[in-house]
Write a structure and sequence with these properties.
Layout (H helix, E strand, L loop, with lengths): L1 H11 L5 H19 L5 H8 L1 E8 L1 H22 L4 E7 L2 E6 L5 H8 L10 E5 L4 E6 L1 H7 L1 H14 L9 E5 L3 E7 L4 H9 L4 E5 L6 H6 L6 E6 L5 E5 L4 E2 L3 E8 L5 E7 L1 H13 L5 E5 L2 E4 L11 E4 L5 H13 L6 E9 L6
Parallel strand pairs: 9-15
Antiparallel strand pairs: 1-7, 1-17, 2-3, 3-5, 4-5, 6-7, 8-11, 8-14, 9-10, 12-13, 13-16, 14-15
Length: 354
């Protein structure tokens, strides 16, 4: 049947002007390659169509901050489990510092925190910091080793985000130890390639903290378990809890759609786990607002009127049509596990017609 469709399409090309016929033939050829499972070599497609090459690298400083936050949370959990009281535990100057309430508890704290150093005991440098304190610093080699898996996942995420972007499939692959190369044939505007890639797209569902107004938290000190985030386009402040029990990884599918008023939305479907956790979240917090957060921006903050148990939902936020489509693609592809920066960018024009 596919062969017959190709023959009909080829016959129809004779009825259109030569320039249009050539473009139509190229599109038909690309589709035929796709149907037959014969993907064109990316470099050959780039030579034929022109396009964009982008070389990406992980933002190591940003990744190090993520590692420090995880280390802080691990240290807090270990100290709590060991029942060692502390006065302060925070990220500071490239490490995590634990300040004990009683200096005599230092041996117990060092024993509890030893688990952060990993099986080989070299992932974290643990030292006494004086005055009843302990300082934990991640080893640079451990940070470099931890980057490998996120970079592999980033390749898959980028490939999904760029799927269908141009006339030929984009190629995404690891290049060297810590680089990702993207080849996008037929895309002459680098922004069309870079913009979908660089947004982390970390989606979270978090409860809104109603213990104080967000404006008061901005003027004073927000509770330790909460932070102030701003609304999408509106820049309205929201005081939201840092903890998120449901996130983008719990969404199985997302599609751009329109609501009953014709406004662009994103409809999504939870995984089995996501449906269960979101159902529990909404059952336990009826009449409380919760925030839908994308990369620390509040897309919307509806009030939970009734438990939401159907395993699906809708995101609204004064989106333009293109914004809703882009958001749906980002949610389907998943969040980037590491922030990426552009280190090299090349645009190749299509070859001159003979």
């Amino acid at each position: 049947m596919r062969r017959g469709a190709c023959l009909v399409a080829i016959a129809l090309l004779a009825a259109v002007p030569a320039a249009q016929a050539e473009s139509a033939w190229e599109r038909l050829r690309d589709r035929a390659w796709s149907w037959l499972g014969l993907a064109e070599d990316p470099d050959a497609a780039l030579a034929r169509l022109g396009g964009t090459r982008v070389l990406l690298a992980p933002d190591v400083d940003d990744f190090r901050k993520m590692v420090l936050v995880e280390l802080r949370d691990d240290a807090r959990k270990l100290m709590r489990e060991a029942r060692v009281p502390y006065a302060n535990l925070a990220v500071h100057d490239g490490g995590v510092e634990v300040r004990l309430r009683d200096g005599s508890l230092l041996p117990a704290a060092l024993t509890a925190l030893a688990a952060t150093a990993g099986p080989a005991h070299d992932a974290v440098d643990i030292r006494e910091a004086g005055d009843g304190g302990v300082r934990l610093v991640p080893a640079e080699r451990a940070i470099a080793a931890r980057l490998n898996e996120p970079l592999d996942k980033a390749v898959d995420v980028i490939r999904l985000r760029l799927d269908g972007l141009g006339p030929a499939a984009a190629a995404v692959r690891r290049e060297g130890a810590d680089r990702i190369l993207v080849i996008a044939p037929g895309i002459g505007d680098p922004a069309r390639v870079v913009q979908p890639i660089q947004q982390t797209a970390r989606l979270e569902f978090r409860l809104v903290n109603v213990s104080m107004p967000a404006s008061a938290a901005l003027q004073g000190r927000a509770p330790e378990d909460s932070e102030v985030l701003y609304g999408f386009k509106t820049r309205v402040p929201f005081l939201v809890y840092k903890q998120s029990t449901v996130g983008g990884g719990d969404i199985a599918d997302a599609r751009a759609a329109f609501d009953q008023n014709g406004q662009p939305t994103v409809n999504f479907q939870f995984t089995a786990r996501g449906a269960r956790e979101f159902g529990r979240l909404t059952q336990e917090n009826v009449d409380r607002p919760f925030a839908i957060v994308l990369d620390n921006v509040v897309l919307s903050a509806p009030i939970i009127r009734t438990p939401i148990l159907g395993g699906s939902g809708q995101i609204t936020g004064s989106f333009a049509v293109d914004e809703a489509k882009r958001l749906a693609v980002q949610i389907r592809a998943g969040a980037l596990p590491v922030k990426l920066i552009v280190v090299e960018q090349t645009t190749l024009p299509p070859p001159a017609k003979k």
